[in-house]
Request: fold
Amino acid sequence: MGIVIPLEESKNKHASVKPLVELTKADMERVNQLILSKAGSDVQMIPEVANHLISSGGKRLRPMLTLASAAMFGYTGDHHIKLATSVEFMHTATLLHDDVVDESDLRRGKSTARTIWGNQASVLVGDFLLGQAFRMMVEVGSLDALDVLSTAASVIAEGEVLQLSVAKNMETTEDDYLSVIRAKTAALFAAAAEVGPIVAKTTKAERNALKSYGMNLGLAFQLVDDVLDYGGKAADLGKNVGDDFREGKITLPVILSYRRGSPEERQFWKNAIENGESSNENLEKALGLIGKYNGLSDTITRAVHYGTIARDALAPLPETPWKSALMEVIDFCIERVN
Reply:
């Protein structure tokens, strides 16, 4: 459901993910090596499909959250490397599965695995990566970390099914939609941030702080993605502007514009989203209605709200470079719309 973000630098010079990238650079090199190792198989198609997506340009924000949330509490072992790799494999598996469910042809500007190798291979390689993720979790030997990540895997799957139940249904409420993205996107952010303090053997309060941070960062992240699909640039998105509209996806700007519109405007949305009338002309009309009813600006307001909750979750923790970097990631994710 996500899109690639240019993690090296922000368009807004006031917020950047660079501090987090720099702080986790050495550990991320170890994660990348482990990714290549664990994606290997004697079955030739498995590394081909896995590496097609793994090497396609994502900058791995989620595993960086795991590395940072362990290091900020002074952790010096290597369990966080395996857990960060597990997180990335879980994310990659969900992307492979997502593209099959959504019948997507492009991801990050490249052909999806399903268009090259077929739906069956995409699903099965995703399952292989999930299996490898759980093997690494077991190697770490932390039942708490295993519980958090396995629970997240279940929640993500529930989110996929919930999304199917609301797909192309213009009666979907904002609460319904938030339930979908909380499960599909934010749950993995939360788990990625929580397992760091688990292996660092911190207090329950510190675990909960990082979990809350990750959950609300994930919600803000996805809401900004929703905005970028209607208000971004193709070069930044790694896909075409309006792809969500063409695929009939229900996102918050659409929900707000539909509910605030006249009967005639609501009928337009039903025709466009539910009946697949998603021509370029209708996309232009949709953009006009979203602008008329402040669909983008109000979605950004929601994202800022969740970003504030994420910031408050970290506020009581000691001031460290790690905390500062995680704080700046909140602003960076939101400022992608600028």
Remarks:
- Residues 43 and 57 are 24 Å apart (CA to CA).
- DSSP finds 17 helices and two strands in the chain.
- Confidence is low (pLDDT under 50) at residues 1-12.
